[in-house]
Amino acid sequence: MSLYLVGGYLRDQLLGRTSTSKDFDYAVAGGSAFQFAQAYATAHAKSHFVPLDEEFDTARVVTDDGTVLDFAGCVGGDIKQDIFRRDFSINALYWDPKSPDCLTDLAGGVQDIEKKSIRALSENVLKEDPLRLLRAFRFAAMLNFDIEEATTSWINKHHKLLEGVAPERINHELFIVFASRSSEKIIKQLAHTGILEVIFPELAKTRVVPKNAYHHLDLFEHSIETVVQTEKELVLNPKWLATDLNEEISFGVTRLAATKMASLLHDIGKPATWHVTPDGKHTFIGHDRLGADMVAVLADRMHWSRPVEKFVSKLVKWHLRPGQLFHQTPVPSDKAVMRFYRNAGSDVPELILLALGDLGATQGPSMTGGKNNELREKLIELLNGFNVFINESRQRPKLLNGVDVMNILGIEAGPEVGELLNAVEEAQEFKEVTNRAQAEQLVRKLYQGKH
Prior knowledge:
Blueprint: E1 2-6, H1 8-15, E2 23-29, H2 33-43, E3 47-53, E4 58-63, E5 68-73, H3 79-82, E6 93-95, E7 104-105, H4 109-115, E8 117-118, H5 123-128, H6 131-143, E9 146-147, H7 149-158, H8 167-179, H9 184-193, H10 195-199, H11 219-232, H12 239-246, E10 248-250, E11 253-254, H13 255-265, H14 270-273, E12 275-276, E13 282-283, H15 287-301, H16 306-318, H17 321-324, H18 334-344, H19 348-360, H20 371-395, H21 402-409, H22 415-429, H23 436-450
Parallel strand pairs: 2-5, 8-9
Antiparallel strand pairs: 1-2, 1-6, 3-4, 4-5, 6-7, 10-11, 12-13
Helix pairs in contact: 6-8, 8-13, 9-11, 11-13, 11-19, 13-16, 13-19, 15-16, 19-20, 22-23
């Protein structure tokens, strides 16, 4: 049997990107890759065999240190034939241990790496596995490469084939694109090809809502621009936010990626709530709540994890709240601000980031005259204030817990216990309660007042 190291590891070596890489792909000729992987796992301690698809002769070995070895049988039994069934030229390099000083490039992959170009090996390889239509954008975002002209035309031609691809596979590629901090060009290209509307048909309906006094773009373009503007805000906001955004909500989905997803979907409730008044004003009453409900349905269809669904749905539902704080008065009360922080919880930074992106994509004539810049400055103050709020909350002693409240009132566990604890914490923030006796007194007073 012959074994060849192929694909992404070699590409990343040439780009200097693999100092910590633990993912390796191997092509196997002259026998079964599936059986080879089984034998390898048996022969090596702390290695575990993972069957992928015996019919297509693919299997995986995972070691205890996190290294992943993928094995696939060569198409036609020959590496030179197999290499041209791969997706892109930059992934079609291979290394033969029989010639350890040579890297074999039959498809011009090295030249494309130098040109920073994503080039499909043929139109047919995209049709064979339509996920590759989306994967081209993932590599472009991940490597900061451009998709070459012929590949772009094939993507435009066949983008609807993605309708038949499993949602889980689409999620993996799309959330990697959204995790990039410089995906503006890629997001706009995805929109231009129609891929986003294939994945999220809800977006197609946003094309019917035109620009208005507040929006200089129609609703579809506004949704795309909101993602772009949300991303642009990253370089302008505090460093502590970067750490928060890199945290994973669910496996493979960062808070940044999910925030940009919410930016894309934040107005999907508008087409169904669109109304034009006799004086020509466009209204979308309740679009935030309807949009959140639509995200829940969409998330179920796309098989998102529950944490991702809750996060994106919450941001869509709350995306107007930061701006609404400043609608009634230029300077909201401390209580109103603290209540907003408490109710929105740990998602405040992402919520304000979305609000800033939404604002940046809203440049109609009614938002001129400094209104836009003024509101943006207030939103940034709100963001910075949250960091202060969190630090002070961590230093504040906890006067009561849930068990204390239940014992004081003689009640069972339930939502009311949480409401009373929130009331105590809010009273602490404004120094209306400073010790346990006062906290107990407040809990009794509120409970008696309600019942």
